[in-house]
């Protein structure tokens, strides 16, 4: 049990990127996906005005990705690179929202006295994913600022994270980050690092944050760390109808920690890591 509790702290509770749904499927979508479509449309219109996306733009049901021909780590990526990252982010969010839209089959893993609930489901091809639902005493803007705009400061309030560094800015809504979990003596899991593509979609009363793993040849796994992979994963933040100082917080965690670890340990540690992250987030919010 002691080893398990230590292992929990090593799993990074790092949140990721957003957004994408196909117009041809709009009539058959509801809930989170329908709202995401409206945000995506606004984003594409903005990109068209900046000349970053050729008009007209069609959003296919499933994006087909190829590795960009240009060097992906240059500071000022070209239009082709920008579109590649935006498309990939939208596809990641489409898949993540599709999982959250499933109404049946979720099994409750944990219930906290404060109302936080974590449920799980086994998804073919993805394994076991976890959904945390909570109410936070913070506005949508505050949470967006902490979890995306100032993501590099996350280690200051979350001790399970050693570092989050933005490697690339692809416009104001898309970034590539490198995250390293904190090292704890005697931990069974050991340090993990992540290379993640993050994208955000924000409007007045809702925020979509999503993410997925990405590869950069120029940034291989770091010495002493196992390169874990996450995604597609997402967070949906919505203002409560009658109280804009509080927000509903839904987090889909989908992660492959890699390495030779028993699934039983990983599947117990991941939901505990979600709860731990949420506790640290609440503590940070209480200091503002």
UniProtKB/TrEMBL annotation:
<keyword id="KW-0446">Lipid-binding</keyword>
<dbReference type="GO" id="GO:0005739">
    <property type="term" value="C:mitochondrion"/>
</dbReference>
<dbReference type="GO" id="GO:0006694">
    <property type="term" value="P:steroid biosynthetic process"/>
</dbReference>
<feature type="domain" description="START">
    <location>
        <begin position="103"/>
        <end position="288"/>
    </location>
</feature>
<dbReference type="GO" id="GO:0050810">
    <property type="term" value="P:regulation of steroid biosynthetic process"/>
</dbReference>
<keyword id="KW-0813">Transport</keyword>
<dbReference type="Pfam" id="PF01852">
    <property type="entry name" value="START"/>
</dbReference>
<dbReference type="GO" id="GO:0015485">
    <property type="term" value="F:cholesterol binding"/>
</dbReference>
<dbReference type="InterPro" id="IPR023393">
    <property type="entry name" value="START-like_dom_sf"/>
</dbReference>
<comment type="pathway">
    <text>Steroid metabolism; cholesterol metabolism.</text>
</comment>
<keyword id="KW-0755">Steroidogenesis</keyword>
<dbReference type="InterPro" id="IPR002913">
    <property type="entry name" value="START_lipid-bd_dom"/>
</dbReference>
<dbReference type="GO" id="GO:0120020">
    <property type="term" value="F:cholesterol transfer activity"/>
</dbReference>
<keyword id="KW-0445">Lipid transport</keyword>
<keyword id="KW-0496">Mitochondrion</keyword>
<dbReference type="InterPro" id="IPR029866">
    <property type="entry name" value="StAR"/>
</dbReference>
<comment type="subunit">
    <text>May interact with TSPO.</text>
</comment>
<dbReference type="GO" id="GO:0032367">
    <property type="term" value="P:intracellular cholesterol transport"/>
</dbReference>
<dbReference type="InterPro" id="IPR000799">
    <property type="entry name" value="StAR-like"/>
</dbReference>
<protein>
    <recommendedName>
        <fullName>START domain-containing protein 1</fullName>
    </recommendedName>
</protein>
């Amino acid at each position: 049990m002691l080893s398990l509790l230590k292992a929990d702290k090593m799993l990074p509770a790092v949140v990721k990127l957003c957004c994408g749904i196909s117009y041809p499927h709009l009539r058959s979508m509801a809930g989170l996906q329908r709202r995401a479509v409206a945000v995506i449309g606004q984003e594409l219109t903005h990109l068209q005005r900046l000349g970053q996306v050729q008009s007209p733009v069609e959003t296919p049901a499933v994006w087909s990705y190829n590795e960009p021909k240009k060097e992906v780590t240059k500071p000022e990526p070209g239009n082709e690179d920008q579109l590649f990252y935006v498309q990939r982010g939208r596809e990641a969010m489409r898949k993540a929202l599709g999982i959250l839209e499933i109404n049946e089959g979720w099994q409750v893993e944990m219930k906290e006295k404060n109302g936080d609930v974590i449920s799980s489901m086994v998804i073919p091809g993805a394994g076991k994913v976890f959904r945390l639902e909570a109410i936070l005493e913070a506005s949508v803007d505050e949470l967006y600022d902490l979890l995306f705009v100032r993501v590099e400061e996350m280690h200051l309030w979350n001790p399970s994270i050693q570092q989050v560094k933005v490697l690339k800015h692809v416009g104001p809504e898309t970034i590539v980050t490198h995250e390293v979990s904190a090292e704890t003596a005697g931990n069974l899991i050991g340090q993990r690092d992540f290379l993640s593509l993050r994208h955000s979609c924000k409007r007045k009363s809702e925020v979509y944050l999503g993410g997925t793993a990405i590869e950069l040849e120029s940034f291989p796994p770091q010495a002493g760390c196992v390169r874990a992979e996450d995604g597609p994963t997402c967070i949906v933040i919505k203002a409560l109808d009658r109280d804009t100082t509080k927000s509903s917080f839904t987090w889909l965690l989908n992660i492959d920690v890699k390495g030779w670890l028993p699934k039983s340990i990983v599947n117990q540690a991941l939901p505990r890591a979600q709860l731990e992250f949420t506790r640290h987030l609440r503590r940070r919010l209480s200091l503002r």
